[in-house]
């Protein structure tokens, strides 16, 4: 009799506690799912000298080719066409005009890119910290630095930035290089994961690139020989910038830009495309970038599925999404508009950044995002010939960040605007 009672007692206790445990797990999951990571203080910066695309072209012909007289007629035409078709009006490079596209010795190159990276990174990081009212920079727990402008050098850039910005010496650091134009959105995904882990985590992200310096390290030009077309394209498109943001579960120290949180982050490698984009260094320390003509099409093929997967979980209507796309050139932006069936205005910040600053590699991701968020919450809406801006910014409740890089790989981040 007694042992039977004990059996019932045990059974009930175990039953109830497992029920309690399961409800607890459910509540925990629900609570966990509800936690949000905010994008605070988003900021960007550029080197000091502003050049028109015509000035860049003129200096490319002058300094890289040694003047028009060294060029074959058809190559001269090709240069004219590529610089024109880039859709870039202005861009920012730290070099003086005479030094644009001038070949640098390896050491001169590494010193120049490293120093410039530190300067523009500090500028955007300081602005991001200042934008977060009430944030003491001492409270930042993690720093992530990303760039495609890598060199063989140590200590790595994150340490220099900790020192320059006088951050806490116990800060957890990470330095990410060579992932290409998708760096910004990949690292936003990472910062989201770190911030989700603990409500006290405050993560500073900085992504910077000095891509115009590829133009100072081109494989040599030979007088009156056919020009390497890749070198023309690189020189016409790649420019410099830095973006920074701070990630945390609290939006308490926010300015107007931080009513933006991350819903989802997604990555993929497109099968059989590893040969389509490669960057290589040669014996004479020149750097060569190869981009296959098929590269954009591989991206356009993969994108519709990738984007519906990103939106489906939250049943989001693409109509309410603004697209912050890597500024990889007019062909990329146009192709994305077509393959996703978008209105021109859904890509307004990508077009704006493309024409005002150029192909910024991985740092473009944050720069494009920053422009749209700023416009959305500001009284002053942009207005400019040639770019189609939203008639009603209230249409946009989400931003889809999309970027592509060597692999060929795609990164997507879904942001919700509040
Ligand atoms: C960038 O330009 C500014 C202003 O011309 C100059 O003070 C600074 O030293 C330059 N930085 C590098 C690394 O060249
Ligand atoms: C670089 O040097 C190595 C060793 O001398 C040689 O095998 C290779 O072909 C060189 N590469 C080029 C592009 O000249
Ligand atoms: C812009 O830069 C990235 C490499 O960083 C490249 O994948 C993309 O194709 C470039 N765009 C053009 C048109 O060169």
Please give the structural blueprint:
Elements: H1 2-34, E1 38-45, E2 49-52, H2 53-64, H3 73-85, E3 90-93, H4 106-131, E4 142-147, H5 157-164, E5 172-177, H6 183-197, E6 203-210, H7 229-237, E7 240-248, E8 260-269, E9 277-281, E10 287-291, H8 295-312, E11 321-325, H9 330-340, H10 348-357, H11 364-377, E12 398-405, E13 409-417
Parallel strand pairs: 4-5, 4-6, 11-12
Antiparallel strand pairs: 1-7, 2-3, 6-7, 8-13, 9-10, 12-13
Bound molecules: 2-acetamido-2-deoxy-beta-D-glucopyranose (3 copies).
Protein name: Chalcone synthase
Keywords: Acyltransferase, Membrane, Transferase, Transmembrane, Transmembrane helix
InterPro entries: Chalcone/stilbene_synt_C, Chalcone/stilbene_synt_N, Polyketide_synthase_type-III, Thiolase-like
In short:
With 418 residues, this protein is an alpha/beta fold. 40% of the residues lie in helices and 21% in strands. The structure holds 2-acetamido-2-deoxy-beta-D-glucopyranose (3 copies).
Could you list some keywords that capture this structure?
membrane; 418 residues; Peroxisomal Thiolase, Chain A, domain 1; acyltransferase; 2 domains; five-stranded mixed beta sheet; binds 2-acetamido-2-deoxy-beta-D-glucopyranose; alpha/beta
């Amino acid at each position: 009799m007694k042992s039977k009672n004990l059996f019932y007692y045990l059974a009930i206790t175990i039953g109830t506690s497992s029920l309690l445990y399961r409800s607890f797990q459910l509540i925990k999951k629900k609570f966990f799912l509800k936690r949000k990571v905010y994008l605070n203080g988003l900021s960007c910066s550029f080197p000091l000298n502003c050049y028109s695309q015509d000035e860049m072209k003129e200096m490319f012909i002058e300094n890289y080719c040694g003047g028009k007289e060294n060029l074959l007629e058809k190559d001269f035409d090709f240069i004219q066409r590529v610089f024109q078709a880039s859709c870039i009006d202005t861009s920012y490079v730290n070099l003086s005009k005479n030094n644009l596209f001038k070949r640098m010795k390896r050491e001169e190159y590494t010193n120049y890119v490293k120093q410039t990276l530190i300067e523009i990174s500090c500028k955007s990081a300081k602005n991001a910290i200042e934008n977060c009212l009430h944030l003491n920079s001492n409270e930042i727990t993690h720093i992530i630095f990303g760039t495609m402008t890598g060199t063989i050098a140590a200590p790595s850039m994150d340490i220099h930035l900790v020192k320059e910005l006088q951050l806490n010496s116990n800060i957890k650091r990470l330095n990410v290089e060579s992932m290409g134009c998708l760096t910004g959105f990949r690292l936003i995904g990472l910062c989201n994961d770190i911030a989700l882990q603990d409500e006290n985590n405050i993560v500073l992200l900085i992504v910077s690139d000095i891509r115009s310096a590829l133009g100072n390290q081109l494989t040599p030009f030979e007088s009156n020989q056919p020009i390497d077309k890749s070198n023309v394209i690189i020189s016409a498109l790649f420019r410099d910038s830095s973006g920074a943001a701070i990630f945390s579960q609290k939006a308490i120290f926010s300015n107007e830009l931080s009513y933006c949180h991350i819903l989802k982050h997604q990555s993929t490698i497109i099968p059989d495309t590893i040969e389509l984009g490669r960057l290589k260094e040669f014996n004479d320390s020149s750097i060569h970038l190869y981009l296959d003509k098929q590269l954009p099409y591989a991206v356009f093929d993969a994108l519709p599925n990738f984007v519906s997967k990103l939106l489906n979980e939250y049943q989001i209507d693409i109509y309410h999404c603004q697209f912050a796309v890597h500024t990889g050139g007019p062909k990329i932006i146009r192709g994305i508009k077509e393959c996703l069936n978008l209105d021109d205005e859904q890509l307004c910040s990508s077009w704006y950044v493309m024409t005002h600053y150029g192909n910024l590699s991985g740092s473009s991701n944050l720069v494009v995002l920053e422009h749209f968020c700023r416009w959305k919450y500001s009284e002053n809406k942009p207005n400019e010939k040639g770019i189609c801006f939203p008639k009603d910014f209230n249409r946009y409740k989400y931003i889809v960040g999309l970027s592509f890089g060597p692999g060929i790989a795609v990164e997507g981040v879904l942001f919700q605007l509040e």
